[in-house]
Design brief:
Radius of gyration of chain A: 21 Å
CATH topology of the largest domain in chain A: Butyryl-CoA Dehydrogenase, subunit A, domain 3
Domain Acyl-CoA oxidase/dehydrogenase middle (chains A, B, C, D): 127-229
Number of strands of chain A: 8
Largest sheet of chain A: 4 strands, mixed
GO biological process, one term (chains A, B, C, D): fatty acid beta-oxidation using acyl-CoA dehydrogenase
Strand content of chain A: 5-15%
CATH superfamily of the largest domain in chain A: Butyryl-CoA Dehydrogenase, subunit A, domain 3
CATH architecture of the largest domain in chain A: Up-down Bundle
Domain Acyl-CoA dehydrogenase/oxidase C-terminal (chains A, B, C, D): 241-390
Oligomer: homotetramer
CATH class of the largest domain in chain A: Mainly Alpha
Helix content of chain A: 40-55%
Number of helices of chain A: 11
Shape of chain A: globular
Strand order of the largest sheet of chain A: 1-4-5-8
Order of helices and strands of chain A: HHHHHHEEEEEEEEHHHHH
Domain Acyl-CoA dehydrogenase/oxidase N-terminal (chains A, B, C, D): 9-122
Number of domains of chain A: 3
Pfam families (chains A, B, C, D): Acyl-CoA_dh_1, Acyl-CoA_dh_M, Acyl-CoA_dh_N
Distance between the termini of chain A: 32 Å
Chain lengths: 399, 399, 399, 399
C-alpha cells in the first residue's frame, strides 16, 4: 500500500498546474456564454494545450495519452478547478470523452476515420443521446426509441431530452441509443448508432436550462426529435443488441472523470471560501475567525480527502481488476462525491453572501453542476439501492 | 389557545384559492421572462385581482386591506404557491410591500401623494437600495453610501448591489439607505431618502443573476452607482438619523411575508413531488411506493407543519406584543424556514430527475429563491448568533 | 387563532413550577437506582404532590383532574424536565397513565375497584405487556401470545419483552395483549386481559437494559414468560376482540404525554448547555462565545419552539376533533419530537465533555430515554411510511 | 499509488481472523462485567493469543511485533469487531498500548524493567492520568495537578477524572501528567511521572459511568485524588518539562488505533444490520427490501470505505513523514471517524428495534464507545478549529 503518485503523474500534474495558471484562470473572466455555444477564446486555448502536450489525456491506448485511470484521475481533478474551460481546452470534456472511448474501442475503421479523428483533433464536438423524457434515465432497459432495419438503412424514431452538448452547432455527430429488437432478452434489445446532426428527420427542438443556466460553455442540453431518421447500416456501432454493453463500458471511466473533476470543483470552492473568509470582516471580526466558518472549512477538507481517496481507489481497481471488479467502488463514488461537493459549494456560497449566488464568482455555476450530477446516470437513490443489495448478498448464503 | 383561523381569514382564503385556480395557475405556462421585466400578462392579472377584492392585502390600516399579520399570513402562504405571479398580481410583492409600509408610516403627505398612491394603485414599482458590495449585508451600521446635505438638497454618493427589482424599467423610485452623519452614535448615522430612477448621476449598471436566473419576473437584481445624485431635502423619509429605525420596522412584517410565501412554495413542491411519485414507475414500481421517497414526503409534511405554526405564532406575537416582543420568533423563522423549504424543494427536484432542474417544472426556480433567502437580510449564521446570545442572557444573571 | 394558555393552565403551571423547585430538583442528587426499583424518597414526593393538588393531572373526567389534552400538555412538559422523578411523583408516569385511562374507560366496576383505585391512589404500579421478541413492535396484528377461554377462565401462553416497569416489585398488575381468535378479521383477533403479578405460570425472567441503564427509576424493562397462566374471565377488559381498538385509544394521549415530556427534557438540556457554556472557558474563551456552540443553542431553541407548537396543536385537535381527526398530527409528533430532542441532548452532552456522558449530569440518561422513544410504539420509519401514504392519498383521486 | 496490503499484513490478517472466529466471538456471550474488572475468561484468551503469535502487535521496534503503523492498522480494525475482548486478549488495549510506547521510547532501563516488562507480558494493567474535572481535556496546557520536587522525591497533588482503566484492581501503575514548573514556557511546564497504585495519598475515589455502562471490560473510568503523593525522583519519565512532548508523541499512534478499531466496530454494526434486515419481516416484507434500510446500508458501506482509506493514509504518512507530517490527517481521522461510526451504529440499532438498545446485541455498547470518542482527546470541535486554521494559513501569505 502506497499513497504516492508515480513519476509520470507528477510530471503531468506539474505541467497542467502551470497551464492552468498561464492559460485557464486568466481566461475565466471573459469566459461566459449567454447562448448555446462556447466562447470563441476556447479555440486558442486548445492550440495552447496541444502545444503543451496536454491533449486527449483521458484516452488510454494508442489514440490518446496512454495513461491509466489512476494516472489520469489527478489530472481530471485539476481540470475540474475550472470545469467550464479546462476540460474542453484539453479535449477532455464530456460527453466527447465517452464517445471517443466508444469509437476507439468499438468503432469500425471507417467510423474511426470519419468521426474519431476529428473528435481527437478537437475540430468537432459530439453528443450521446440516451435519456428520454418518458423513461427514468436510471432504467436504460426501458428506452422507447426504435432503430429499425430497412434494407441498407436503419430508421430511427424517438424522443430524447437533456442531451448534453447538443445545442452547440459544432456538435456534428450523435451516438443514439435505441432498441433494435424490443422482444429480445432484456440487455440485448438496445443498439447504438451514429447519426450526423444534419440528417433529415432529426430536429434539435430546444435547449433545456439547468437552474437558470444554459450550460452554454459546452453547448447546453437539448431536446431532440427523431422522425424517420435514416442512416446507412454501416453507422451501427458494434453489433445489433450490443448497445447496453457499450453503454456500461463507458460508465466506469466516465464516473472517475466526473468525480475527480468534482473533487477539483470542491478544492476550488474551498479555496474561495478560505480567501473570502480571510478578506471579509463583518461586525469587525474576519469570517475566518468565526467558529461556524471554521467548522465548514474543516469539514470540507476532511470530506474532500476522504472522497478523493475513494475515487483514486476506484481508478486503481479499474486498472487492476477491471470495470466489473470495481463495480461497488464506481457506484460508491457516484453516490458520495456529488452530494459531498454540493455541500462544500453551498458553504462557499454562504460565506460569500449574495455575491456567491451571482455571476461574480464561479460558485453558483459550480453548485448547479454538482447538483445535476446527483441525477445524471440515474439518481443517487437508485445506486444506493443497488449497492445495498450487493452488500446484503454477502450474508444471504452465510448463516 | 386555539388553532383555528377566524372568519375573515377563512373568507379571504376561499376567495384567494379560487383566484389562484382561475387566474394564476393558468398564467404560469406563459409566464417566463428571459429579460429583466415581468411578462405583459401581469397587467390583466392585476385588473382581475382588484376586481376580486384581493388587492393590497398585506397593508394594515386605512391604506390597505386592514388585516392583522395573523390574518394576512395564511394568504401570503397561498400566493407563495406561485411566487413569480401571485404576489405581483395582488400588489403584495416585495420590495414594494415594505416600501409602501414605510411610506404609509413615515412618509410626508407629499411623499405619500407622489409615491405611495401610484404604488398602491400598482402603476409603478419600487426598490430598496441598502446592500453594498463591500459591506456584509447583515451589518447595516457599516454602510458606505453618503447622503450629504447641501443647501436645499441632499447629495448622494455610493455603490449598491443586489437591489431587487431595480432592473425593471417600471421601477420608478428607490428608497436609498446611506449615512447622513458617520460620526453620530452607531444606530443614528443612517437615513433613508427617496431617489427617482431618472435622477442624474444614478446609473443602473447591470443585472445580477441568481443561480443563472435573471429573476426577471420582478425585474431582477441590479448594481447601482450613485455619483453626486441630488434630490430635494423633502425627499428624506422621517428625520436625519432615522434610517436604521425605519429599516428595523420593515423587517418584521417582511419576514412574516417571506416565510409564509416560502411555506406556500414548500406546499407546492410537496404536491409536485407527490404527483410525480404517483405518476412515475421506473423499474416497474411507482416512486410513491419507494421507501426513500415516502421518507421525503413524510419529512416534508412534518417540517412544513412545524414551520407554519412557528410563523403564525410570530405573526400573532407581532399583533399582540409588537415587533420587539416578537424579536426572537421573527429571528427564529428567518433561521428555520428558508433552509427547511430548500430541503423540501431539493427532494422534489430529485423525484423529478433531470426535468426537475430544468424550465419544465417550477421547482428549480423555487429552489433558487429559497436558497437566496438563506442570505437575504444577512446570512442565517448571523441570526443564529444573535438568537443564541439572547438565550444565553437568560442565564447570565441567574445562578 | 390564539397562542396563549388559558387561566386554568397558567394556574397549574405556576403551582407545578413551584413544586419542581421545592421538591423535585432537590431530590435529584439522591435519586438514583442501581437496581430495579425506584428510590424510597419517591413516596414522600407523592405525599407532597397530593397535598399540592398536583395528582393524576393526566386523567380527564371524574377520576382525575379533568383537564383537556391541551391543558395537560404544558404540565407534562414541566414534569419532563426531571422525567425520572416528577411524573412518578405526580402519579402521571407511563405506563400507569395509559393503564388507568383504559380501566377508567373500558373497565368493569369490579376491575375499577380492584385495580384502578389503587393505581389512582398511587399505592401500586402496573405494566402493559404487548411487545414480543419475535414480532416487530410496530405490527400489533402479528402478536403471538394466545388468550384461550377454558370454562370460566382464560389461559394465557406467550413471550413478552421490553415490558416497561415490570421489574418493579410494586408493579402488581399487567394488562396483557394477546389473541383470543387468530382466525378472526385482522383487527379483532386481539384482546386485553388483567393478569396479577403473582399469578402462577407468569415468570418475570430478567431485566433488560437500555444503553447500560436499568431504568430502575420506574422499575426497568422486563422479559416475561406466560405458561398456562390462568385468570378468571372477569379479567377481560372490554369484549373479546376489542384489544386492538383499546390499544389504539391509549396511543393518542400517550404520545402527547411522551412528546411534551420530551420537550421538557430538551429545555432542561438546553438550560444545562447554556449554563455550562457560560461557566467553562477552555483556551481562555467561554464556550458561550464559540460560534459552533452558539449555533447549537440557536438551533435548539428554534427546534424546540417548532416541536412544542406541533404537539400543542395535536393536543388541541384531539380535544376538538378526536383521536382519529388528529391522526396525522399524532403521527407527526411521534416522528419529529424524539429525534429532535435527541439531537439537542447530544449537543448538550458535547458541551459538557466527558462529564456529559457520566452520572454527573442527567444528560446521558435523558439522551438514552429520547433515543429509545425513536423505537417505542414502532420505529419512526414505520410512522413516516404511514404518514406519507396518507399524504399521497390526497392526490390519488385528484388529477 | 497502490491500494493492496503487503504480504506481512495479509498473513497477520488471516491468522487474526481465524483467532477471532475460534476464540473471540465464542467468548462474547459470557463476556459481561457488571462491576469494574474484566471477566476471568480474559486470561485464557491471552494465553491463546500468545500461542497464536498475536501478541503486542501494536508495538513497533524490538519490544513488540515490529510492525509499521500501516501494517498494524488493518489488524486493529479486526480487533475492533469485538472491542471489549480482542484488544485486551492481544495485549493491544488502550491505554496500556500508549503507556507501553511511552516507556519503550522514554523510559529508563529501570522503569522498563519494573513496569514495561509486566505490561508487555500482560500480567498487569496501567492507566494514563491526564484529564481533570476543572479543565477542558482538550487544553493540556491548563492542567492543575502539581508535581513538586522535594529532595529525592516528587510530591504530587491534584484531581483527575475519567481515568480509563483505573477501576481495575489489576491496574498497578499510573502515568500521571502534572506541572513541575507552572512558570515555564507554555509547553514545557508539564512532566509525566510513574505512580504505583498503592502509593499512600492516592485515592481511587469512584467509577464513572458512560451512558449507564461501567465499561468494566477494561476497568472503567475512575476519579482519582492525589494528596501529597510521594514517589522517588527516578519515577519521572524523561526530563522535567517533557510531559507535553511525550503526550504528543503518543497521540498519533493512539488515534490510528482508535480509529481503526472504530472502523471494525462499524463493520460489525453493518454486518448485524444486514443480518437482521434479512431475518426480520414486519408487515410481511423483509427489512432488507425496505428502501430506507437499503439507504442506511449503502450509506454505511460508502462511509466506511472512505473513512478506512483516510485512516490508512494517515498511518502511511506517519510511517513515511512522521507524526508531524501526518498532523492534518491524524486530526482529520479524529474528526470524521467517531461521528461516522456513531451514525452507522445508530442505524444498526434502529434496524433491531428495542433489542438494539439492550444487552442482547453488542450495538448499544459499541454506540456508547463511539459516542465517547467524539469527546476523548478533546471534542471534535476543537480539532476542527485547529484543522481549519491550518487550511486558512495556506492562503494567508498567498495573494
Amino acid at each position: 500500500m502506497d499513497f504516492e503518485f508515480d513519476a509520470t503523474t507528477e510530471d503531468y500534474r506539474k505541467r497542467l498546474l502551470a497551464f492552468m495558471d498561464e492559460h485557464v484562470y486568466p481566461a475565466e473572466a471573459g469566459y461566459h456564454s449567454d447562448g448555446w455555444e462556447p466562447p470563441a477564446v476556447l479555440e486558442s486555448l486548445k492550440v495552447a494545450a496541444k502545444a503543451a502536450g496536454l491533449w486527449n489525456l483521458f484516452l488510454p491506448g494508442e489514440h490518446g495519452a496512454g495513461l491509466t485511470n489512476l494516472q489520469y484521475a489527478p489530472l481530471a481533478e485539476i481540470t475540474g478547478r475550472s470545469p467550464a474551460i479546462a476540460p474542453a481546452a484539453l479535449n477532455c470534456a464530456a460527453p466527447d470523452t465517452g464517445n471517443m472511448e466508444v469509437l476507439a474501442e468499438f468503432g469500425t475503421p471507417q467510423q474511426r476515420e470519419q468521426w474519431l479523428r476529428p473528435l481527437l483533433d478537437g475540430t468537432i464536438r459530439s453528443a450521446f443521446a440516451m435519456t428520454e423524457p418518458q423513461v427514468a434515465s436510471s432504467d436504460a432497459t426501458n428506452i422507447g426509441t426504435r432503430i429499425e432495419r430497412d434494407g441498407d438503412e436503419y430508421v430511427i424514431n424517438g424522443h430524447k431530452f437533456y442531451i448534453t452538448g447538443a445545442m452547440n452547432p459544432n456538435c456534428r455527430i450523435f451516438i443514439v441509443m435505441g432498441k433494435t429488437d424490443p422482444d429480445a432478452e432484456r440487455h440485448v434489445q438496445q443498439s447504438q448508432i451514429l447519426v450526423p446532426r444534419d440528417t433529415p428527420g432529426l430536429t434539435v427542438k430546444r435547449g433545456m436550462t439547468v437552474f437558470g443556466y444554459t450550460d452554454g460553455d459546452h453547448g447546453g442540453h437539448a431536446e431532440l426529435i427523431f422522425e424517420n431518421v435514416r442512416v446507412p447500416v454501416s453507422n451501427l456501432i458494434g453489433v445489433e443488441g450490443g448497445g447496453f454493453a457499450i453503454s456500461q463500458a463507458r460508465l466506469g471511466p466516465g464516473r472517475i472523470h466526473h468525480c475527480m473533476r468534482l473533487i477539483g470543483m470542491a478544492e476550488r470552492g474551498l479555496e474561495l471560501m478560505c480567501r473570502r473568509s480571510l478578506a471579509r470582516a463583518p461586525f469587525g471580526k474576519p469570517l475566518a475567525e468565526q467558529g461556524v466558518v471554521q467548522d465548514w472549512i474543516a469539514e470540507s477538507r476532511v470530506r474532500i480527502e476522504q472522497a478523493r481517496l475513494l475515487v483514486l481507489k476506484a481508478a486503481w481497481l479499474m486498472d487492476t481488476v477491471g470495470n466489473k471488479g470495481a463495480h461497488t467502488e464506481i457506484q460508491a463514488i457516484k453516490i458520495v462525491v456529488p452530494s459531498t461537493v454540493e455541500w462544500i459549494l453551498d458553504k462557499a456560497i454562504q460565506a460569500h453572501g449574495a455575491a456567491g449566488t451571482s455571476q461574480d464568482t464561479p460558485l453558483a455555476a459550480l453548485w448547479a453542476a454538482a447538483r445535476t450530477l446527483r441525477l445524471a446516470d440515474g439518481p443517487d437513490e437508485v445506486h444506493k439501492r443497488s449497492l445495498a443489495r450487493r452488500e446484503l448478498n454477502r450474508y444471504r448464503s452465510r448463516p
